[in-house]
């Protein structure tokens, strides 16, 4: 069969040039600037952000580029390289939550969210998007779009938040509000934080415990694959990936209801109590026995154990214990498959084949219900492992997957 497709990244120069060219062709003028924001891969810590837990994402080298200029009125005109001949329109005047449909809800939602937050100086704009982040892959193409928009609007309207890490929290909130309230796609903040706060060569350890300052809630943890002769293979299964069909919200509600039944504000409180116990396994069992609903027990077990796995992975990788790091990947996937029930056959089979072909560990990444897996493999083994997955997919009658090699990359920035 044909070699599996590897998704190429665009350099900042290439992406900026393509976005500016599309802007010029569409709007007949040059943009004020071009901004880029990356997609992300979450190494471990899935469905923990909205439970006040821990996550460990890296920014991808694959980015969404936005060429943008402000307007004096409230109108928004947008174009994308996916449909370069089709301009879409909206108007910020009188706009309410859910008032924009389709892909433009994400960038328009950012401007709306900033205005709702009191930044009345944000007006309309023209924008042209070019992206190499695979769509529908669980690699957060939506956050790449909202974060590039947030940073662009911050700069052209002089809000002043994008220059420092603490200020970027305001832009992250606007990006989250756009997804949650305008686009109707639930998000807990991991994706936007990764796109806005990651640094090259590092994973971002995010702690969503309430009350932490920006510095307390994030730390840069070295993620040097070359040091250990490793490669992080990402395989987009191309299984349909959809998070706004109610499945995500069901699990989030289940966790919130469980926390209420346990008498705590969030499941992180319980996770910390379990971790501090003399016998964590016994403490976890006691917690689960307080919940009558068997499905709720499974959801809570995943969240508590997954929060614990994040710290263990950071420690294992720092020590060069790649066998343990891989085992934690495997345990995370098993928990997501059996307890959180967010995998699909394509994800499970891709993980199985990756392990059978020498991966130290493999797991689904992102919200699930489709999307991508990641596999920790020896350097240079990525193409062979991806090809083995593609061949198995062919025998299963699945769509052909596509792949990319991930390295820890930089956050959103102006590139032209």
Could you please describe the fold and organization of this structure?
There is one protein chain. The chain is α+β, with helices and mostly antiparallel strands. It has twelve helices and 14 strands. A six-stranded mixed β-sheet has the order 6-5-7-4-2-14. Strand 5 and strand 6 form a beta hairpin. The longest helix is centred in the C-terminal third of the chain and has 26 residues. The model has no long low-confidence stretch (mean pLDDT 96).
What is the element layout, followed by pairings?
Blueprint: E1 5-6, H1 12-27, E2 33-42, E3 54-55, E4 57-70, E5 75-80, E6 83-91, H2 105-116, E7 125-131, H3 141-156, H4 165-182, H5 190-197, E8 202-207, E9 218-222, E10 230-236, H6 247-262, H7 267-276, H8 280-289, H9 294-319, H10 322-338, H11 345-356, E11 361-365, E12 372-378, H12 382-396, E13 402-406, E14 413-414
Parallel strand pairs: 1-13, 5-7
Antiparallel strand pairs: 2-4, 2-14, 3-8, 4-7, 5-6, 8-9, 10-12, 10-13, 11-12
Helix pairs in contact: 2-3, 2-4, 3-4, 3-5, 4-5, 6-9, 7-8, 7-9, 9-10, 11-12
Brief summary of the model shown:
The chain is of the alpha+beta class and about 425 residues long. The chain has helices at about 10-25, 105-115, 140-155, 165-180, 190-195, 245-260, 265-275, 280-290, 295-320, 320-340, 345-355, 380-395, and strands at about 5, 35-40, 55, 55-70, 75-80, 85-90, 125-130, 200-205, 220, 230-235, 360-365, 370-380, 400-405, 415. It has a six-stranded mixed sheet.
């Amino acid at each position: 069969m044909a070699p599996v497709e590897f998704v190429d990244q665009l350099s900042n120069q290439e992406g900026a040039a393509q976005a500016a060219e599309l802007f010029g062709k569409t709007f007949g003028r040059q943009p004020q600037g071009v901004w880029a924001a990356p997609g992300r891969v979450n190494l471990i810590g899935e469905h923990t952000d909205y439970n006040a837990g821990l996550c460990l994402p890296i920014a991808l080298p694959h980015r969404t580029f936005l060429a943008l200029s402000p307007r004096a009125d409230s109108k928004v005109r947008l174009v994308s390289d996916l449909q370069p001949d089709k301009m879409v329109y909206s108007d910020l005047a009188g706009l309410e939550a859910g008032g924009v449909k389709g892909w433009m809800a994400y960038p328009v939602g950012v401007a709306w969210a900033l205005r709702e937050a009191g930044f009345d100086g944000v007006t309309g704009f023209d924008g042209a998007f070019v992206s190499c982040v695979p769509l529908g892959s669980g690699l957060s193409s939506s956050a790449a779009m909202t974060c590039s928009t947030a940073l662009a609007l911050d700069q052209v309207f002089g809000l002043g938040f994008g220059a420092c890490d603490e200020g970027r929290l305001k832009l992250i909130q606007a990006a989250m509000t756009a997804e949650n309230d305008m686009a109707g796609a639930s998000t807990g903040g991991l994706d936007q934080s990764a796109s806005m706060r990651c640094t090259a060569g590092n994973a971002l350890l995010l702690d969503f415990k309430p009350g932490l300052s920006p510095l307390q809630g994030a730390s840069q943890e070295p993620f040097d694959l070359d040091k250990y002769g490793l490669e992080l293979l990402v395989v987009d299964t191309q299984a349909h990936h959809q998070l706004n069909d109610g499945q995500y919200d069901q699990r989030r509600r289940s966790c919130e209801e469980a926390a209420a039944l346990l008498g705590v504000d969030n499941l992180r409180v319980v996770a910390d109590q379990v971790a501090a116990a003399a016998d964590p396994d016994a403490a976890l069992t006691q917690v689960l026995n307080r919940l009558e609903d068997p499905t709720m027990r499974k959801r809570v077990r995943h969240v508590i154990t997954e929060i614990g796995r994040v710290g263990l992975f950071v420690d294992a990788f720092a020590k060069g214990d790649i066998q343990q790091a891989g085992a934690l990947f495997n345990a995370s996937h098993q928990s997501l498959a059996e307890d959180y029930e967010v995998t699909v056959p394509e994800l499970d089979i891709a993980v199985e084949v990756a392990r059978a072909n020498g991966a130290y560990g493999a797991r689904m990444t992102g919200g699930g219900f489709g999307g991508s897996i990641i596999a920790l493999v020896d350097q240079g083994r990525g193409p062979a492992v991806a090809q083995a997955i593609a061949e198995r997919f062919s025998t299963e009658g699945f769509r052909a997957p596509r792949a990319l090699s991930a390295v820890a990359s930089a956050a959103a920035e102006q590139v032209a």
